[in-house]
Amino acid sequence: MAQRDTIAAIATAPGAGGVGIVRLSGPRARAIGEAITARALTPRHAHHARFRDERGDTLDDGIALYFAAPASYTGEDVVELQAHGSPAVLHELLARCCTLGARHARPGEFSERAFLEGRLDLAQAEAVADLIAAGDARAARAARRALDGEFSRRVEALAESLMAIRIHVEAAIDFADEPLDTLGGAALRARCEALASALDDLLAAAERGRRLRDGLHAVIIGPPNAGKSSLLNALAGSERAIVTDIAGTTRDLLHEVVRIDGVELGLVDTAGLREGGDAIEREGMRRAHGELQRADLAIVVLDARDPQDGRSAVADAIVGVPRRLWLHNKADLLDVVAALPDDTAGDRHLSISVRTGAGLDALHACLRQLASAEGGDAVDGAFTARARHVDALRRAGDELAQARAQLDHEALDLAAEALRVAHDALGEITGRVRADDLLGRIFSSFCIGK
Ligand SMILES: Nc1nc2c(ncn2[C@@H]2O[C@H](COP(=O)(O)OP(=O)(O)OP(=O)(O)O)[C@@H](O)[C@H]2O)c(=O)[nH]1
Ligand SMILES: [K+]
Ligand SMILES: [Mg+2]
């Protein structure tokens, strides 16, 4: 591999803080650290030192740490200069590193090097970014598990079973005139079946992990004037959306992330659904439909005085949304509160009044529970995963199904090819197999200094 250059970045968050860290990685990291501190740096030793500019004047004093390759985060020589967390000092320190031969690191470049040096696999490197960005403690713990390799190990185990199946099929191809059954066909089929079911399990876990990372995505829909925007404001705790008594007030989508008892929930307010409306309102309804395609939950707001009308308005829109929460709003306007339908796994019903606040505690509890169940709160060993992982597992599953069908037809060549593609799909998750632009896309979404 070509000799890499030395990269540097401020690794702590922007702004003033107690401590700020400039991090270096690469072949010149140690020499640059020693030039700035005017000291010999011993690996894994905290050196209290003055950080100096080119004239020898003190920029700051702090702690210098040196991690010798390969025992460092990136696998290269790494130096960390811990100064006072003043943006001015840190920028001067970084500029000094660059004068001494380092260059500014791109976002995620430290983690990219850790991946290229084999310190982390790709799913683990992604977990680093997820851990940093985790919105709540559950997501952080789950990212930590992915970083520890929990997810990668399960992927590797599947890849190994798949490899054994491929070897069996490739060997059978050499005896193509014999029926598969005399070549251990029954055992092969049993292995394929076990692998398919293990893949399904991991796919389900990865989907939970994806939701844990991205949070529950809920879309508020209903007929005009049912109180959708009022509900968004009540959950957000501020007047985010315009509320009026004019039907068709909301046109655009309004995204808001709210926290309910520490659990994050992504909410989208949408235009009321009804026949007709002007061009702007119709565009709003089109967007509402689009948003529902990726919703985990539809929060349907109905006017409790005429719930049937609201149900018909949303009937088409909610097809395919996994869960629905039906809110019979404006309970304050009813003389008698009508009985609600029974809850089922996919549908829950609550009577509320956003105006008086009645039922909002129950709503909070319900949303908290839905968000937790979606995120796999109760599932031991939950790990974060990304849409990319879910997609790869799905493709591997599809190819394996193909291969099994081909085996049934004794079409060994075709089966072998499908198995190879399935194997590659699994390899993409950990980065054993990778498309050229994949690394760029993944690491560019990281923050600088990581
Ligand atoms: N009485 C009563 N009025 C409510 C309640 N919730 C909302 N409203 C009123 O209903 C009207 C419509 O509220 P919005 O929140 O704008 O309704 P919307 O569903 O967002 O309406 P569009 O954006 O036009 O589709 C406003 O005048 C609100 O003050 C409630 O619980 N009780
Ligand atoms: K309105
Ligand atoms: Mg509205």
Automatic annotation (TrEMBL):
Cofactor: K(+)
Keywords attached to this entry: Cytoplasm, GTP-binding, Hydrolase, Magnesium, Metal-binding, Nucleotide-binding, Potassium, tRNA processing
A family per Pfam: TrmE_N
Subunit structure of this chain's protein: Homodimer. Heterotetramer of two MnmE and two MnmG subunits.
EC number(s) reported in the record: 3.6.-.-
Reported function: Exhibits a very high intrinsic GTPase hydrolysis rate. Involved in the addition of a carboxymethylaminomethyl (cmnm) group at the wobble position (U34) of certain tRNAs, forming tRNA-cmnm(5)s(2)U34.
Keyword match Transcription regulation: no
CDD domains in the cross-refs: trmE, TrmE_N
Localization of this protein: Cytoplasm
Positions contributing to Mg(2+) binding: S229, T250
Cofactor comment: Binds 1 potassium ion per subunit.
Cross-referenced InterPro entries: G_TrmE, GTP-bd, GTP-bd_TrmE_N, GTPase_MnmE, MnmE_dom2, MnmE_helical, P-loop_NTPase, Small_GTP-bd
Molecular function per GO: hydrolase activity
The name this protein goes by in its record: tRNA modification GTPase MnmE
Organism (species): Novilysobacter erysipheiresistens
Highest taxon, organism lineage: Bacteria
Binding residues annotated for GTP, in chain numbering: 225-230, 244-250, 269-272, 329-332
Segments passing through the bilayer: none
Record has Lyase as a keyword: no
Residues that, per the record, bind K(+): N225, T244, I246, T249
Record family assignment: Belongs to the TRAFAC class TrmE-Era-EngA-EngB-Septin-like GTPase superfamily. TrmE GTPase family.
Binding site for (6S)-5-formyl-5,6,7,8-tetrahydrofolate: R23, E80, R119, K450
Domain TrmE-type G: 215-372
Principal location listed in the UniProt entry: cytoplasm
Cross-referenced NCBIfam families: mnmE_trmE_thdF (TIGR00450), PRK05291.1-3 (NF003661), small_GTP (TIGR00231)
